[in-house]
Each structure stands twice: as C-alpha cells, then as structure tokens.
Amino acid sequence: MIVAQNIKKAIGDNVLLNDINLTLMPGSITAIIGPSGASKTMLLRCLSLVDLPTGGELAINGSSFSFPKDKPNTALIWPQLTVVFQQLFLWPHLTLFENVAVPLRMAGRKDADARARSMLERVGLEAVADHYPNQSSGGERQRAALARSVALEPRYLFLDEITSNLDVESASGVLQIIKSLKSDGLAIAIVTHSLHFIATAADSIVFMDHGRIVESGGACILRDAQTPRLQRFLSDSSMRCSMPIYMTRQLNGYVRITNSCMRRLFI
Ligand SMILES: Nc1ncnc2c1ncn2[C@@H]1O[C@H](COP(=O)(O)OP(=O)(O)OP(=O)(O)O)[C@@H](O)[C@H]1O
Ligand SMILES: [Mg+2]
C-alpha cells in the first residue's frame, strides 16, 4: 500500500503539488485526471520518488518517509515500483524481446529469457518479439514497455498517459492488459483521458487542478460531480474529444458528442 499525506512539491516559489492525500491499495486502479498543467505527472514523479516531495509524508510498503528530512534509499524502493511515462524509453538498439529480457538478466533472474517470452505473449507480441522498436508500431512499442515494466513483478505501477498516442483499438488492448494486471494484485495509478476506461475500470478517481486534489471518489463523481471545477472539466470539449470512438458508436446514431450524450453514458 502507498499512503501519501499532505504531500507538497515546490520548485523555488512555484508550488507544483500541495496538500496531496492519497492511498493506493493493492489490486486497485486509481485514475488521475485533470487539465494540462494540473501536476498529474509531477504527482506520479513524487509518489515514485523520481522527484522528492518537499513536504509531507509518504509510506510505501510500510516504509515511511517524512519530507524534506528523509532521503529514501530508492535502490530498495524502485524494484517494487515502476513508472511508464508517455515518452516511453525502449532501447532502440535492442529488439522488443531483448528490451524485456535484459532488465530480467541484470536482476539475476535465471528464468529471464523464458519470462521475457511469456510477458511478450501476454501482451500479444510474440510474433514481433524480434523486431526493433523502429520496426514496431506505436501500440506494439507501448505494449512492449508495459511488458518490460511488469516483468520484474513490481507491486506498484504508475502509468502516465500511455495510450494517448494510440488508435482506439490499440489503446483498448493496452487498457485491457492494465485491467488484467489489477487482478494480479498490483496497485495501479494511471493518468488517462479515456473516460470509458475510467468509468469501467477505475476503483477511484482523483481530479486535480493547480497541483491540488479538487475532488476524488468512485466512478460516480463522473456523473455526479460535486465541485464546479470538475463539472466544468467534464463538460470541457477537450475531454469529450478524447473520448474513444467506440463510445460514440454506442450512442446509436449520434455523431456529435454533446454534454447530454456524455452524461447519459454514465447513468
Ligand atoms: N522540473 C520542473 N521545474 C519547474 N516547473 C516544472 C517542472 N516540471 C513541471 N513543472 C511545471 O509544473 C506544472 C505541472 O506539470 P505536469 O507535467 O505535472 O502537468 P500535467 O498535469 O502532467 O500536465 P499534462 O496533462 O500537460 O501532461 C507545469 O506548470 C509545469 O510547467
Ligand atoms: Mg503530464
């Protein structure tokens, strides 16, 4: 379990995160939504200790850190925690198979190659396992990055807009894999604009703006937002535009998505 209490991140006079309280439970998906610049990425960076918070407390697997006093030993934490950022970093000179196998070999796993193969199978990449990243589609690269991120069996998986460059079908495939990882018991935090995924898969939703959590709760907050800011965000065109096309097909003949259409989807 990860518990964040009053987490703050300031760079100079710029307060990027303030008063963040959040719990990530094993076997759960927490969706983080909010406008550009709300500090969603910074939240994942601080929860994963890629960036250190400048205030507050963070407990990861029972180890508690108080900031700015503590300097956590990330060598102990990171094997249990993986972050996949939007700009995924596959090694360009290695095949997809090697991209997954090399970290396993480096970790001394005797079953490294067999495990890499089975992870690639799990994400449907067995046929292209010997392709290099530049011979692979965006969706294939994204699935390879996901396979690599979970190959070492982390307990926590943080995903930052990993489907935003994918077509609807590829994104849906990746999101299905994420759902299956939840049933493996991982605690998953995902920044995404896929309302369909959030509505069907997220156990909790956190809406951020200006570095703060403005509203949080279950999927019900999408149809019954309590704060004017979340209400406005949900009716904002950018959120509607990023709704998967297959949802529009469910609207029986509606081509344009209107606010009322969107609201009906969640009733
Ligand atoms: N290293 C940094 N130094 C100073 N400011 C930063 C740094 N990293 C991010 N910021 C600022 O923090 C704010 C939040 O950035 P962040 O990338 O977390 O937003 P976001 O919610 O993920 O946005 P998007 O949806 O566009 O990815 C932005 O105003 C950004 O300019
Ligand atoms: Mg971001």
- CATH class equals Alpha Beta
Strand order of the largest sheet: 6-7-8-3-9-10
CA(first)-CA(last) distance: 31 Å
Q: What share of the residues lie within helices?
A: 25-40%
Overall 3D form: globular
Contiguous uncertain segments of 5+ residues:
240-267
Q: What is the H/E order?
A: EEEHEEHEHHHEHEHEEHHHHH
How confident overall, as mean pLDDT?
A: 86
Number of helices: 12
What would you say the CATH architecture is? Answer: 3-Layer(aba) Sandwich
**Class per helix and strand makeup:** alpha/beta
> In this structure, how is the largest beta sheet organized?
6 strands, mixed
How much strand content do the residues show? Answer: 15-25%
Query: Which hetero compounds are present in the coordinates?
Result: adenosine-5'-triphosphate, magnesium ion
Structure summary, number of beta strands: 10
The CATH topology turns out to be Rossmann fold
Q: Explain this structure to me?
A:
By secondary structure, this protein is α/β, with parallel strands linked by helices. It has one domain (2-266): 3-Layer(aba) Sandwich (Rossmann fold). It is 37% helix and 24% strand. It contains twelve helices and ten strands. The chain has helices at 40-47, 74-77, 96-106, 112-122, 138-151, 168-183, 195-201, 220-223, 228-234, 237-241, 245-249, 259-265, and strands at residues 2-11, 14-24, 28-33, 55-60, 63-67, 81-84, 156-160, 187-191, 204-209, 212-217. It has a six-stranded mixed beta sheet, with helices on both faces. Strands 2-1-4-5 form a four-stranded antiparallel beta sheet, with helices on one face. Helix 3 crosses helix 4 (112-122) and helix 3 (96-106) packs parallel to helix 5. The radius of gyration is 19 Å and the shape is globular. The model is unreliable at 240-267 (pLDDT under 50). Bound molecules: adenosine-5'-triphosphate (ATP) and magnesium ion. Adenosine-5'-triphosphate binds next to strand 2 and helix 1.
